[in-house]
Predict the 3D structure of the following.
Amino acid sequence: MQHVSRRSFLETSAAVTALALCSRTARAAAGDKMAYGLVTYLWGQDWDLPTLIANCEKSGALGVELRTTHAHGVEPALDDKQRAAVRERFADSEVTLVGIGSNERYDDPDPAVVKKAIDATKEFIQLSHDVGSTGVKVKPDRFHPDVPREKTIEQIGKSLNELGKYADGFGQQIRLEVHGQCAELPTIKAIMDIADHQNVAVCWNSNPQDLQGGGLEHNFGLVRDRFGATCHVRELDSPDYPYQQLIDLLVKTDYEGWILLESSSKPADKVAALAGQVVLFQELVKKSQG
């Protein structure tokens, strides 16, 4: 029997391990780290938490953003025991609690209204931490008569920086949804240029405004470097938005976050419809990867 030295054995083992790692890396394509899930607005708005988790598992949409005021009941009013129960329920399931969808916004010309919104958002940040998610969705949201746009943009940006700093203590991300009168991407970029805290990110929202001006690729590029862990889409087979192009851009830039369905349509079987969207997402990604 041929004798194999310990040194030779170790060198061979290291080579095999390196080869396996290289092979594994080679198999990982851009876009493979994206995942598909659901925003409870609106398909999941009437599902209590056990039903929501079960339906996400059945459909294969294994991440969820919990919009405030919906039937799941995950709200700042929950006490410590209730928050722990929510965290444990998700931990015992296949579903990732991606974040909390607040409805807070920071555009109002009245400082007291803005302070109230900031204080409410801080409660959502604490809630998100306690139930085991990683961020809170917020809105910019609109412009007001007799208030210069630049002043509103600066106000929103400074509010987001305050929240980003606060969120840092809870390991949370502030996710600015591209929304409302602020949905034009140059406006979002202007806000984010002021909101430069590392915990403040953009939540792409698949709006008609994405196609304006220089078009989707140009607008995508304005804010791609500030994307957070969530990206909202409507049904991926909708004829009024170029979802294949969006997925192409996400794959090309190797986005690693959650693609979350936020849909207001009313299919007869929402679970089956959600499952269909999961399959379509996988097909679009595969096509983008070539």
User: Anything to note?
Assistant: Confidence is low (pLDDT under 50) at residues 1-10, 19-25. The longest helix spans residues 6-27. The first strand starts at residue 35 and ends at 39.
